[in-house]
């Protein structure tokens, strides 16, 4: 072999070794999961269980070997429920942290503030917030795990219709969630033959809604009352409702679907109904329900790890992370466009919240029937339907 041939072969070997080292280094790099959540502040009842869920399942996945042979790294920020903070943190995750996907956004306001940035950057983003405006109209890079407020309104109105109610009173918070829920309820009520004959609102700092509830109870022909809101407001409304001794069926939205709400509302919550994921009543699910094993597994793992009761909001984070992992595995890489395409193609994924079937025109993938109707009985949740 000539000297020139030896040199050429040595160059090829060196190049191969260099490529191998680079590939090994890349394979060893963690897959970065970015998140901004309302861990503290007025929406902490959302963000706290969401962060705990992400932390425990990132650890679990890593202990089991990671994803595509790589470990997951969770990079998260607390936006304190502030939309401006959320936008800033989303920008940091994209530009500075260079994450591969974002799973977060506890509130609609935080999500919508971040959405333009992820759209511009081409960053797959799975929101944990509820408003239908997050995915309608569809934004190319934005997905979400909770059922929409429109679905909640549809499920509540469906239950009202089957109980024979045709005139209702509506009270709602003026924040993003309550305002959107009010809008959706007003838009779809007629489809169920229901007329909203009283329409009242309350602000985020209001501490007594007696006047609004009195107006509703005095409205002509009211059959039932619905409150759309989250945070402290719905608990105050519930207590005021009981104090006024209003003898009408009472509904809340999925915004209060947690045991923490029962603690806040106490005996005043007795008899109210709401739409929720089956996470609050796993033992009541029939054995052939495809969600039963998933729901029970998540509930047991969360409560054992954190020594606190599970909430549906943590379930949104579980589904968000698992959908992200499934899409990355299906893509075979963290290529953002490929991961986005795989998210949009997810079909039949059985989650805590429901069974997801994404599509180009549906970046939520859930049906209204994924909500179960629950009623408070003897201070606990009871499955109605």
TrEMBL record:
Residue ranges annotated for the Leucine-binding protein domain, each copy included: 30-379
Keywords recorded for this protein, A-Z: Amino-acid transport, Signal, Transport
Pfam families found in the cross-reference section: Peripla_BP_6
Family recorded in the similarity comment: Belongs to the leucine-binding protein family.
Protein known as: ABC transporter substrate-binding protein
SUPFAM superfamilies: Periplasmic binding protein-like I
Signal sequence extent: 1-27
Transmembrane residue ranges: none
């Amino acid at each position: 072999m000539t000297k020139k041939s030896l040199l050429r072969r040595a160059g090829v070997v060196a190049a191969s070794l260099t490529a191998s080292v680079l590939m090994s280094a890349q394979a060893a790099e963690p897959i970065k999961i970015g998140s901004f959540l309302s861990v503290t502040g007025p929406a902490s009842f959302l963000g706290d269980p969401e962060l705990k869920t992400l932390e425990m399942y990132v650890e679990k996945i890593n202990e089991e070997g990671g994803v595509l042979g790589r470990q997951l790294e969770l990079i998260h920020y607390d936006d304190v429920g502030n939309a401006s903070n959320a936008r800033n943190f989303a920008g940091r995750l994209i530009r500075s942290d260079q994450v591969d996907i974002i799973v977060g956004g506890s509130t609609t306001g935080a999500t919508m503030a971040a959405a333009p940035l992820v759209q511009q950057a081409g960053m797959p983003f799975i929101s944990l917030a509820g408003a239908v405006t997050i995915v309608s109209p569809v934004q190319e890079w934005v997905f979400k795990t909770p059922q929409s407020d429109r679905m909640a309104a549809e499920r509540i109105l469906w239950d009202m219709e089957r109980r024979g109610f045709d005139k209702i009173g509506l009270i709602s918070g003026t924040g993003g969630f309550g305002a959107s829920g009010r809008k959706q309820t007003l838009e779809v009520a007629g489809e169920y033959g229901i007329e909203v004959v009283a329409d009242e609102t309350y602000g985020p700092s209001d501490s007594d809604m007696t006047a609004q509830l009195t107006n509703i109870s005095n409205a002509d022909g009211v059959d039932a009352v619905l409150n759309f809101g989250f945070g402290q407001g719905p608990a105050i409304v519930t207590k005021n409702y009981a104090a006024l001794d209003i003898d009408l069926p009472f509904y809340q939205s999925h915004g209060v679907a947690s045991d923490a709400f029962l603690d806040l509302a106490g005996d005043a919550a007795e008899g109210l109904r709401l739409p929720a994921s089956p996470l609050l009543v796993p033992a009541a699910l029939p054995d052939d329900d495809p969600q039963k094993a998933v729901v029970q597994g998540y509930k047991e793992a969360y409560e054992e790890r954190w020594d606190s009761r599970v909430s549906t909001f943590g379930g949104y984070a579980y589904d968000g992370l698992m959908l992200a992992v499934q899409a990355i595995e299906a893509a075979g890489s963290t290529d953002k466009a490929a991961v986005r395409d795989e998210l949009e193609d997810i079909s039949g994924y059985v989650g805590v919240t429901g069974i997801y079937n994404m599509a180009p025109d549906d970046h939520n993938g859930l049906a209204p029937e994924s909500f179960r109707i629950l009623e408070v009985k003897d201070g606990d949740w009871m499955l109605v339907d």
